[in-house]
Amino acid sequence: MSPFNESLFVGLTFINFKYPIISVQGMELVYFVNCSFNNNQVSFDFPMLTFNNCTAIIANGTITKNIVEATSLVGLSTAILGLMNMTVEENTQLSRGPIPLFDFTNAASEISQTVFRNNSSPNSPLFGSWFFIIVYITKSNFTNNFCGSSALIVGDSLANITIEDSLITNNYGALVHSMTMSSINISNSKVKENFASESALVFAPRSSIQFLNQTIVENNIADSIISSQLTNETSLVLNSTIFVNNSCSDTAFALYNSNSWVINSTVSSNTVVGHPFISIQISNFTIDGSTFNSNWATNEGSVVKIEDCSVNANSSLFSENSGRLSGAFDIAIQTNETLKFVFQNLTFNSNEGKIVSSVYFSNKIPESRFEYCKFSKNRFDEVNGHLNLPQTFFRCRFNTQNNSYISFHISSTVENQPDEFVFIICLIFYVVSIILLSALILIPMDKFIASHL
Predict the structure, then answer these.
(1) Where do the TM regions start and end (predicted)?
(2) Are residues 160 and 245 in the same domain?
(3) Which H, E and C letters describe the chain, residue by residue?
(4) Do 11 and 148 share a domain, yes or no?
C-alpha cells in the first residue's frame, strides 16, 4: 500500500502479512487512527512500515505479536513519527545483528502515552539510528523488553534524547548507547530493576547527560550507570535525583575533562565492586545539597575518587559510607597545577576507610579549606595530614558523637578552642575579674595616700 497526498486510515486491522505493508514517501502527513498491526511475519529488504520524507501519526492502536527478520517493524528516513496512546508488545526481531525494531535514521519521533512491553530484539535495540536522531518520550512505559547486549535506544552521533514522566523497568539491556556529541535528558522518570549485561546504562561520549526532577534510578544491575569509557568533555548533572540500591561491577559514574554537578540529590545504598562509585578526572566537580548514605565500594573502590581536578562541596551529608582508603573522598594529586578544594557545611558521619574515615589525600596534600564541617570522629581519623600542612579547618566540629569542639587554623597550625558559648562565658568572667582586681588594688592605694596627706 502506497498512499499519496494527505491520507487518513481509521479502524483498520493488518494481520498475517508476509511482505511490507505500507510505504509512504514524500507526503506531508499521513494518519493511522485506531489501527492494528498484529501477527505479521516480514522477512524482506524493507520494513513492515516505511516512512520517507513525510510526517506520520499512529495513534490509539496496537503493534503486537509481529516477527521481522533482516528488517525492522518501522523504518524512518528523513521523517517525523508520532506514536500516541499505542501498545507495542510481544514483537520479535529474529536477526541478531544491529537491526533495530524501530529504525530512526536522520529522523525525529515523539512517543506519548505508549506502552512497550515484552518485545524481543536480541543484541539489537528497540530504537536505532546511525545518524542524527531526535526522540521525545513522555508518559510512556518500557517494561520487560529484551535487547541482550544492546540497548533500548542506540545511535551514532548528534542525538537529542528526552525522557519525561516515564517508567523504564525490568528490561534486559542498556538504556542509551553510543550517542556521541549528544544531549540526553531524563526527567521525573523511574529507571529501576533493569539489567545491563557487561554494559553501562548510559554510554554517551562527548555528550551532555542530565538526570532531573525527582528521577529515581533504583535496583539496577549494570557495569556502570554512566560508562567508565566516557572521555572528552562529557558533562553530567544530577539534579533532584535519587540513586538507590544499584549494583555496579565498574565505576558507576566516570567522567573525564568535564564540568559536572550533583545538586539536591540522594545517593544511597549502592554497591560498586573494585572501583569508585564516582570517578572524576581533570574536571570541575561540584556537590551541593546532596546526601551520600550507606554506599559501599568494595576492594579497591572509594565513594568519590578525584584525580587532578578541583572540588567544591557544599551543604551535604556523607554518612555510613565504606571504601578502601576512605569512606567519602579519595583525592589523588599528580599535577603541579593549582587546584581548589573547598568543603563547606558538610557533615561526615560514621564513614569507614582503612586509612581515614572521610577525606584521604594521596600522593601529596594540596591547599584545602574546610569550613563549618562536622565530623563524627577525631581530626586525624577523619582527614589525613599533619599540623604543618596548608589545611584550614575553620569552625569545624570533630568527635561530634562524644564531646564536640571547634577547630581554627592559625599560622599553619591547628589549635583547639572551646565551644563559642563557653568561650563567651570565659571572656565575661575574665573582664569581671580584671574589674574586681583593679578595685581591690585601687581602694588600699586611696587609703595609703590619704594617710600621708
Answers:
(1) 421-443
(2) no
(3) CCCCCCEEEECCEEECCCCCCEEEECCCCEEEECCEEECCEEECCCCCEEEECCEEEEECCEEECCEEECCCCEEEECCEEEEECCEEECCEECCCCCCCCEEEECEEEEEECCEEECCECCCCCCEECCCCEEEEEECCEEECCEEEEEEEEECCECCEEEEECCEEECCEEEEEECCECCEEEEECCEEECCECCCCEEEECCCCEEEEECCCEEECCEECEEECCCCCCCCEEEEECCEEECCEECCCCEEEECCEEEEECCEEECCEEECCCCEEEECCEEEEECCEEECCEEECCCCCEEEECCEEEEECCEEECCECCCCCCEEEECCCCCCCCEEEECCEEECCECCCCCCEEEECCCCCEEEECCEECCCHHHHECCCCCCCEEEECEEECCCCCCEEEEEECCEEEEECCHHHHHHHHHHHHHHHHHHHHHHHHHHHHHHHHCC
(4) yes
Query: Of 206, 222, 238, which one is at a domain's C-terminal end?
Result: 222
Q: pLDDT tens per residue, the chain (453 residues)?
A: 566 667 889 999 999 999 999 999 887 789 999 999 999 999 877 899 999 999 999 999 999 999 999 899 999 988 999 999 999 999 999 877 778 899 988 888 999 999 999 999 888 889 887 777 889 999 999 999 999 888 888 877 667 899 999 999 999 998 988 667 788 999 999 999 999 877 888 888 778 889 999 999 999 999 888 874 555 567 889 999 999 999 998 888 888 777 889 999 999 999 998 888 888 888 788 999 999 999 998 877 788 988 888 888 999 999 999 988 888 999 888 887 778 889 999 999 999 988 889 999 887 888 889 999 999 998 888 888 776 677 888 999 988 776 555 554 433 334 344 444 445 555 666 666 777 666 656 555 555 444 545
In a domain, 453, yes or no: no
> Domain for residue 205, yes or no?
yes
Specify whether 152 is located in the same domain as 265: no
Whether residue 88 is found in the same domain as residue 29: yes
Range of the domain at 310: 230-445
167 in the same domain as 23:
yes
Residue 257 counted as domain residue: yes
**Residue 175 and residue 319 in one domain:** no
